Amino acid sequence: MEPFQRHRRLRNTANLRSLVRETIVTVDDLMYPIFLVHGEKQKNEVPSMPGVFHLSIDMLEQEIQELESLAIKSVILFGLPKTKDELSSEAYAEDGIVQQGIRKFKELSPEIVVATDVCLCQYNPLGHCGIVENSYVTNDKTLELLAKVAVSHAKAGADIVAPSDMMDGRIYALRQALNENGFENTPIMSYAVKYASAFYGPFRDAADSKPQFGDRKTYQMDPANLREALREAASDVAEGADFLMVKPALAYLDIIRELKMNFDLPIAAYNVSGEYSMIKAAAQNGWIDEQAVVLEMLLGMKRAGSDIILTYFAKDVARWLKG
């Protein structure tokens, strides 16, 4: 009997390593975020997010063809409105930009799963995720509008609605409104554990949603807190959530693991804009191997317990996995 174990026996060849591999990332794990804008022939790169574009509805046919060629099966839609107002009217308008995008996806590719971001921050001039009164984001009045947004998305054909606002009681409000309008089979992907993170900067450029005063710390979570994450997730499960999301992902792998161990719903991880842009910038400077770093990062998210990864790298990853 040898005095030590030879763990390297199982690492001798690529095929042997593949045989004993415990965790894999596949294209089925990926959900691709898309930013929609009004106008025609609009395909404008977001300066802080290389490879990510603002797309007008007429450009979606080309986009969908590319997604289908890469076997990407799910997307999440964000919209930039034509005009903004205090009640975020376009967020729940029948002809709103996201509603148009949903219908175009369902017309051209009914099989692609379309999730939609349910929030108000892009649609109101103050850039906050709810109705603002006396410089404070009100909770219960905001719920009424969020419910209208979710129902309007479901009417347009959304497969999943995903509230990202972090108002208390939002899952219950959405579930009740969806059920009352005949959409009891539309699932809710809750941004259950969304931290007040420094990693969102490039997204706020892409979505034109930077707060015009203060910050979002009165409704998004303190990055220091883990037990609070479990309380938030438990509330959303009790209110009727069908998925639980952790956002951001990279600095919160422990939170993903805790949710995986404590709840039996599918767990989503949002690989956010700051995580994306840092890697893109380092790769453009030749400091890292982009493909190797991205695949390792997503593998870590999957190993931590995520069943779904929302990532701007989805197209790149799909190509790498095919190759």
From TrEMBL:
Protein known as: Delta-aminolevulinic acid dehydratase
Described function: Catalyzes an early step in the biosynthesis of tetrapyrroles. Binds two molecules of 5-aminolevulinate per subunit, each at a distinct site, and catalyzes their condensation to form porphobilinogen.
Classification lineage: Bacteria, Bacillati, Bacillota, Desulfuribacillia, Desulfuribacillales
Species for this entry: Desulfuribacillus stibiiarsenatis
Principal EC category: lyase
EC number assigned by the record: 4.2.1.24
Keywords: Heme biosynthesis, Lyase, Magnesium, Metal-binding, Porphyrin biosynthesis, Zinc
Catalytic activity: 2 5-aminolevulinate = porphobilinogen + 2 H2O + H(+)
Pathway where it operates: Porphyrin-containing compound metabolism; protoporphyrin-IX biosynthesis; coproporphyrinogen-III from 5-aminolevulinate: step 1/4
